[in-house]
Design brief:
Blueprint (H helix, E strand, L loop, with lengths): L4 E2 L5 E3 L2 E2 L11 H13 L4 H11 L2 H10 L1 H12 L11
Antiparallel strand pairs: 1-2, 2-3
Length: 93
């Protein structure tokens, strides 16, 4: 994946996410992240589960970007976070 844009601060973006190197982590092992992504992909998690997991771990700026791109997923995550056992009203428990 190739950096394609920059945000207002001039930080390089990878896709719609600020790269760790641009976020002040020079020399960040991006190869490690790439290799980790291959291992995660092999586990065959559902796509939106991965998006929710990314939201849970994102820093403030990346969370803002994820929320913009996946507003409905953010709302679902928040609703389930606050629901007992993650079960929404009307769903079988």
């Amino acid at each position: 994946m190739k950096a394609r844009d920059s945000d207002r601060s001039g930080a390089r973006l990878v896709g719609n996410v600020v790269s760790p190197a641009a976020a002040g982590h020079p020399g960040w092992p991006l190869v490690f992240e790439y290799e980790s992504s291959k291992h995660i992909a092999l586990q065959d998690h559902p796509f939106y589960a991965l998006v929710m997991a990314a939201m849970r771990q994102a820093d403030e700026e990346n969370l803002r970007r994820l929320r913009l791109g996946f507003e409905d997923v953010w709302q679902e995550l928040q609703a389930r976070y606050h629901a007992p056992g993650g079960v929404l009203p009307g769903e079988p428990s």
